Automatic annotation (TrEMBL):
Protein name: Uncharacterized protein
Lineage: Bacteria, Bacillati, Actinomycetota, Actinomycetes, Micromonosporales
Region (Disordered): 44-66
Biased composition (Low complexity): 51-64
């Protein structure tokens, strides 16, 4: 079976924003403002890991109003501030870039005509569902997907990067996510796609990708302005790194590397901002993001530039305030051991 490559095209944007646990054996990026190089995933299959597996069962939270968050006991919302440091933390941080600065890969305004960040299209109840044709159909949820023809595309309609499309259906409490999405006739075509029920802790089948290399939800890890405006982010944040090793760390379900260096992080690896880092003097928007990284950490979700954290664009972002996050470097982070949180490797629920 062929081994497709996922390439993350990184577009320079210095002028604006200048932006663990149980390890499994291998089973098988945006048009990113702020990066100065192109990162490519090499080696192992992105998809193609044999026949489709049945979807595992997982606990489901009681029905409730949808606030755009996964269940309170979900791993994305787990407090990791007291978890033990991973024994290879120092080496993993060094492999990402101990001296490299963090980049907030979101903000206000446009860059080359496109909003800065990964946009979310909120759709109304009853939004017409359309068919999506997938290049990697064996690991994509069939749909149909309630994605309108004018859905926002990461990087804009002419982008040549990851072209993520995310549709949030609040009435159904679900998000629909596409990778490499292009309008096609009355529908869409995409590289891969996934549907996430925000009231469920269910993970994707082992070995499956999503719209992200890790098999995780992109939406779950985005920094959103409404959270910061409310004064608190209560979940981990999506982050990219230049290179990972084969296999994946819970809650990830997919590997996109053939590298075997044990000092590289895996997709799904959890890091946190060290408690010793003083964030009190940061502007409010940056401080709230930094405080979330201390308590909930960041999750390695895809390949791209080092220490790029993902967020949704919003005109209310203060780019000058967000730029304060660039004062953080890899040395300010540590990898944590999340194995003690695991209830089941088929579920994102935590102890």
């Amino acid at each position: 079976m062929r081994a497709p490559l996922r390439t993350v095209a990184i577009v320079g944007f210095v002028a604006f924003l200048a932006g663990c646990g149980g390890e499994a054996t291998p089973s098988g990026a945006v048009g990113t403002p702020g990066a100065s190089a192109t990162a490519a995933v090499t080696g192992a299959d992105k998809l193609g890991h044999g026949p489709a597996r049945p979807t595992p069962t997982a606990t489901r939270a009681p029905a409730a109003g949808c606030n755009g968050q996964l269940p309170a006991d979900n791993v994305w919302r787990a407090d990791v501030s007291k978890l033990p440091v991973h024994p290879r933390s120092t080496a993993m941080v060094a492999s990402i870039g101990a001296g490299a600065a963090m980049h907030p890969d979101f903000g206000s305004g446009d860059y080359e005509g496109a909003p800065i960040g990964i946009p979310v299209t909120t759709v109304p109840a009853g939004q017409k569902k359309i068919n999506v044709s997938f290049e990697y159909a064996s690991e994509s949820d069939r749909g149909p997907y309630p994605i309108p023809a004018n859905a926002k595309i990461e990087g804009g309609p002419q982008a040549d990067g990851d072209r993520h499309v995310i549709a949030f259906d609040k009435s159904a409490c679900k998000v629909y996510e596409l990778f490499s999405a292009f309008p096609q006739g009355s529908g869409w075509r995409a590289g891969s796609g996934a549907v996430f029920d925000l009231r469920s802790n269910k993970l994707r089948p082992s070995g499956w990708t999503s719209a992200d290399a890790s098999g995780l939800s992109i939406f779950a890890g985005l920094v959103r302005y409404d959270e910061v405006a409310a004064g608190r982010i209560n979940h981990a944040i999506r982050i990219t790194v230049p290179k990972t090793r084969s296999g994946f760390t819970w809650p990830a379900t997919h590997s996109a590397s053939s590298a075997t260096d044990a000092n590289l992080p895996q997709l799904g690896q959890r890091l946190r901002l060290k408690t010793s880092v003083n964030t009190a003097s940061m502007p409010k928007q940056a401080r709230i993001v930094a405080e979330a990284m201390k308590r909930y950490g960041v999750i390695v979700a895809d390949h791209g530039s080092a220490w790029f954290i993902s967020g949704a664009p919003d005109d209310h972002w203060d780019n000058d305030a967000l730029r304060a996050l660039k004062s953080l470097t890899g040395n300010n982070f540590e990898v944590v051991d999340t194995s003690g949180l695991i209830v089941s490797k088929t579920s994102g629920a935590t102890r």
